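call fold(seq) -> C-alpha cells
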Amino acid sequence: MRNRRRGSTLLEFTLTAIPVLFLSLSVVQCALAMLEYDSMANAVTVAARYAANHGASCASPNSCTVRIEDVANLIASTTWIISNSTMSVTFTDPSGSTTCELSVCETNTAQFPSSTSGANAVGNQITIQVTHKIINPLPMFWPPNADADDTGYTVGAGSVQAIQF
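ret:
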C-alpha cells in the first residue's frame, strides 16, 4: 500500500505550486501597474497646477515664465518609477497643442501656456495628458507570445486646470 502512494506528494505539490506561482506573479504585476498609473496621475496633476499658477502674470519679461521643459522636468522628477522614454506628453492651451516623448520634451524651450494671442490669460483652460505603455512580463511563459510586440497595454492620465494668475 505504501509503495503505491510514492511520488504523489511531489505531484500534488507541482500541480498546486504552478498556479499559485502564476497567481502571485499576476498580483505583483497588477500592483506595479497600479503604482505606475498612480505615479503618472499624480505627476500630471502637479504639473498642470504648476503651469496654471504661472500663467498670465509670468509672461516675458518676468523671470517666472514657464517653458515646456520646466513642466516636463517636473513630470519626470515626480514619476521616478517610469522611464522617460516610455511616456508621451501632450500640452494643450487655447493656442494649440504640443505632443512629444517626455525625454524630448525636457529640452523643448517653448513657453507653456503660450503668450501668443492671449492663450495664457487668467481663466483659460490648459490640459496636460500623459500616456505610458505598461509592459506585461507574464506572456513570456507562453512560447507563442514570447516574440509578440504587443505584450503590454497603454494607460493614460490627464489634468485640466484654469490659469489662476
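Residues 3-162 form one domain.
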